Amino acid sequence: MGWRRKATHRSYTCTVDSLEELRDDLWNRWQRAFDRFPELESAFQSGERVIYANGNLFDLEKYTSRKFPAGGRVFSEPPESINSYHRYRLDSKGRPVHMASGHTVNHFDWEGLYRYTTDEVECLEFCLQTRVVSKYARMTLQNGIPKTYQKIEINGGGSHIGGATGKNAISRIKHESYFSGATVVKYESTEDRVLSGKALVSAPGLSPHRLDLEYFYSDAGKLERIVLIREDGSKYTSFAARSKVSMKELATKLSEKIASRTIEALKKADLSEPLQAVELSFRSVTNYLPGVIPAMEGDSVSDMAIVLTNGKRNWIGLNEEDFEPEMAEFLDRMNVAENWDSGSRMLRQAAYLVTQRASESLPIADGFVAFAIDWEFEGHNLNAILKQCGATTATLKRLKKIGWLSHG
Fold this sequence. Notes:
Layout: E1 3-5, H1 16-32, H2 39-45, E2 49-53, E3 84-90, E4 96-103, E5 109-116, E6 120-127, E7 132-142, E8 145-154, H3 170-175, E9 180-189, E10 194-202, E11 209-218, E12 223-229, E13 235-240, H4 247-268, E14 275-283, E15 287-296, H5 306-310, E16 316-317, H6 326-337, H7 341-357, E17 364-373, H8 375-378, H9 382-388, H10 393-401
Parallel strand pairs: 14-17
Antiparallel strand pairs: 1-11, 2-3, 3-4, 4-5, 5-6, 6-7, 7-8, 8-9, 9-10, 10-11, 11-12, 12-13, 14-15, 15-16
């Protein structure tokens, strides 16, 4: 069954000014929420059952009047976790009414509440030690269809605001962009579905930017894809409906695409020397579209830390549109299952394919290898990772001989 976008470029009822007004309204609601701390007790007393999780669930942006998906694994008993806990109390419809989370190491705790009416849903969280509103989110609806969405999240969950606590932290948070991130969205819809939207987004320490949202539906009316368009015209997929293919098939398709695009990008780079190595740099959990970092035969590299030697001088960015909608679906399924090792394995396979195929179209040196790594979490497994990515015993000996790999 094919799918098509149900919206064309129509005149929006929302303007730039209305998005800014929506953002101002969000800040005002967040500030007033500091007076709502006593509501936590009544929220805690409500609900019919309790569930547990390893991380944050119930993203308000995914709320519908028919269903509020958890967005991750839930447990009837507290999962075995050394550092943190997340607990939700649910009402008779399976919706959260109270949440609690905390770190047993740094000894900060959070509590929050959810409030539902026919045309409005709210989520509100406090850091208990600082009494700072760490998150405020709100969605308005008309006939069950989203009209607006607003969210503020405070960096560090409001646990460290330069020593400020409670309402004393408000001014500092509002005037120091590093402390917060905010998102506002206005949707255009029909009586039964969202067609498109416009958003104003800011991240900690960064200037606000604008996005256009495009919604695609199947012929049967099922939401298949949400595409976000940046101010420079580039696009990325924020949602892709789950297909019938397996995670293994998705991983295989993505690794093939990434390997192919990596080799194409290296060919376009017009390399002046033979390649000794190519690093596919990624960040576990948050980003599996790798940066491509080539290193030449004449470079001086220690323990394969190419980025430390060359910085971002030779960094090549891949076009994220080339990997959609498969990447969006892969990430969603991986996050829901909380099985992030599948992302690492997918990129190792992509690197293995580059190692095997590079000689067909690229100038490579003896002992060439491509490898995928998140240095922060995986640097201690470098030799094992190189082997997973196609490095033979002869390759490792060559890399040690030229000083690129330690003898330890």
